Amino acid sequence: MSLQTPTALSRVNLHYAIQAFAQAAGGVFLLAVLLKAGVSVPVALLFQAGIVAGRFVLRPMVLPLAKRTGIKPLLIAGTLATAAYYALFAYLGGPGPILILLSAVSSIGYLLYWLSFHAYFAALGDPAQRGGQVGLREAMVAGVGVVAPLAGAWALTAGGPKIAFLLVGLVQALAIVPLIGAPNVPVARTPPEGYRMPRLGLGLMFGDGLFAAGYHFVWLIALFLTLGESYAAFGGAAAVAAIAGAAGALFLGRRIDTGRGRRAVVIAYAAAAVIIVLRALGVGTPWLAVLANAGGALMVALVTPVMMTPVYNLSKGSNCTLRFHIATEGAWDAGCFVGCVGAAALVAAGLPLSVPILIALAAIALLVAQLLRYYGRLQA
């Protein structure tokens, strides 16, 4: 039976939308809650670096499990482990042993989840329609993102972190329901004949991890501080941003599938560079920070199909999607670790948060050079 069925992909997209609700209602607030609990900015960034370092170290252990179970059970386990992480976050009281435990549980949960999700999505999707499929997925996430951060901000304000994160953990756990009837994807016990690991996949994911450090993690801290450490204002800014994101994902994803990949790269990452500069300028200026945050959601909707289409297609072409993503997700962790540790060092040295945000510009240069070569070969 072919794995590439509309029903299978629809189940995965519904699963992803539910977990995206949990991410937008709780995950986006995690660093903000750390700051509220008395954790300093450099320590918060090192906490994030510790999570990705833990994932990097634990990653080789996944393959033996996957050989026995296939990919879907790992995706379900990662979903539930992430739910446990959110529930544990409800009991964070500040710096201390619970923070170390959170880092360990998060490493396991995010390792199992994102590794298996990307491998699963790559296996179920159709390379000829990949851009549109990724675009539709991201448009769904953008739609969810309008409501979820408002719900998260309300729960944090009305009930406090304990109630809010327990509820978020429950939502995350419910994301396994659409997967119950989805097909499993087996993993060969030995690398299949013709298995290959394109270096492009490693380079792209390292660059994307480095980009995420400045664009996403440093920015979340900067935005929260700029908005006066208000959960309501922070959630409102995230909701406004999500409204801007949906149309961009659908528009650019389809242009990739019609052979306009190089143009899509230029559009997406030119927008990314502008948004990064706006975010750096917006630190300390609430109205500009909200504007830059909204523009960032549109930018992510543009960038994700451009970035993930080659990654998923290279994965499927490697003949073993899981082995491919074990390597490439490790490269993402390495890039994010470098970015977060570098950002923590810059902040600890007394530089404003606007400086480490600009780390993302170096990542853009690395990504654009690789993506233009990839899409150029397709269009030649």
From TrEMBL:
Annotated transmembrane regions: 12-35, 41-58, 70-92, 98-123, 135-157, 163-181, 202-225, 231-252, 264-281, 287-309, 330-351, 357-375
Keyword Membrane tagged: yes
Domain of life where this protein originates: Bacteria
GO molecular function: transmembrane transporter activity
InterPro entries given in the database record: MFS, MFS_trans_sf
UniProt keyword annotation of Membrane present: yes
SUPFAM superfamilies for this protein: MFS general substrate transporter (SSF103473)
Keyword terms, alphabetized: Membrane, Transmembrane, Transmembrane helix
Protein name as annotated: MFS transporter
Phylogenetic placement of the source organism: Bacteria, Pseudomonadati, Pseudomonadota, Alphaproteobacteria, Caulobacterales
